[in-house]
Amino acid sequence: MLEIIKTLINGFGENLRIFVLTLLMAIPLGLIITFGSMTKFRPIRWLTRVFVWIIRGTPLMLQLFVVLYAPGLLFNMPMRNRIVATLVAFVINYAAYFSEIYRGGIESIPKGQYEAGQVLGMTRRQIFFKVVLLQVIKRITPSMGNEVITLVKDTALSRVIGVAEIIMVAERYTKQGLIGPLFSTGLYFLLFNGLLTLLLGWIERRMDYFRA
Amino acid sequence: MAILEVNNLGKSFGATEVLKDISFSLEKGESLAIIGSSGSGKTTLLRCLNFLETPNCGSIRVNGEVIFDSARAFDNLPPMVRRKSWGPGIVLDLNRFFAALLNGGMSPEAIRRNRLHFGLVFQSFNLFPQYTAFQNVVLASELLAKERPDYKANKKAILDDIHEKGRALLASVGLAAKADNYPHQLSGGQQQRVASARALALNPDILCFDEPTSALDPELTGEVLNVIRSLAARNTTMIIVTHEMQFARQVADNVMFMDSGVVIEYGRAADVIDNPSQERTKRFLENYTNN
Ligand SMILES: Nc1ncnc2c1ncn2[C@@H]1O[C@H](COP(=O)(O)OP(=O)(O)O)[C@@H](O)[C@H]1O
Ligand SMILES: [Mg+2]
Prior knowledge:
B: four-stranded antiparallel beta sheet; binds adenosine-5'-diphosphate
């Protein structure tokens, strides 16, 4: 019994590792994609939007396979590390989603906020970081929270390319006739997402002091 | 010498000509009220002075210095051709170059510098919601101070100065007690006064108000007009777009009546409002007294 729990916790550690690393990289990468999709330079804007369309329009599971196999097939450089392949696919996928949330948030800020900064002699950079950014963060926190919770569950998809995450290790017990461990994995996800929900609520309350 | 001279200013949005051949001047310490029906181009004129719009033609001078001239627009394009190396920086330069082309030949730095001659209080205030009244007033000064060469050495003294001035400004608009309130905790009239203090913080040569009372409940207009009245008493150079004729008559030195993007009449406030010389001005003012 204890042995099983230890194995499951180890497996869930793999899920958490993918979760944390994906978030850390996808949050800034998403911002870069946002700038691409909002630039006045049309070719870049067009390319970025096609890219986002492809990433959001195809299954993440398929993207995992592509990242795992494409380097070997195309460049004869097989991807050996399954975790790296998972991270590449997850970061690109989530950065694309985040970029659209950021874009919606940035576009929802009234023009008057930018103009007020301009007439006060602020630079574009100052207006973005000192005036607009916190208002955007406040507006997008609920949608980002949704995505973050989805990401926790999506980490289980990495099993399709052979990452030993919690559901994969739990499934091994079914071959010994034990179904309990597999079903119990749900508790791990529930518990972690419960903590995340509390954290997200706390972040939202931290920004309650102003209206935007 | 006039502090502000506007000559033959024109602005079109696509095919619609919104400002046509606007010329006027304003002496230092005087105030100008702009009146005219809605859609006559008053806001657009203020936006051109503050470089939120680029005029299509004409010139703007402040203290004799040309800060905009459509005829000389391309004299000060960013140095593209004179660059010494052709590294990746060329992309940024190209970007600045085209940005300047779009902005009537002015680089972003030039626009930013020129803007500081003017202050603008927006019709809808546009306070920054995540900052307190006090922070709204001092933010721009703090950011600007960072560009001073002696900032690092005298940081504390410089910031203390800015903060003291910010508190004094809030007190001067009667809001010392509301310094730590966020905009959503303030009434419309209080927000409007914070916005005025914020615009004054950078010591603009000319302060512009766009319909300062039009977004307010009638019982709140008095407190805002009183602030502007006291600014006028201290000889602040101001341009005030307003529909309050009696206020314009009492407070402003000059009045300009605009119609369909044209200056119909410009003169001393009492003359224009009590004895308009143009037929259109008469009709506009009659409509006002009748309502
Ligand atoms: N960005 C814009 N694009 C197109 N038309 C505009 C724009 N801004 C203002 N206008 C038009 O210019 C005219 C003058 O507008 P405005 O300067 O706001 O007038 P006022 O402030 O006197 O009411 C109006 O007909 C308005 O529709
Ligand atoms: Mg207007």
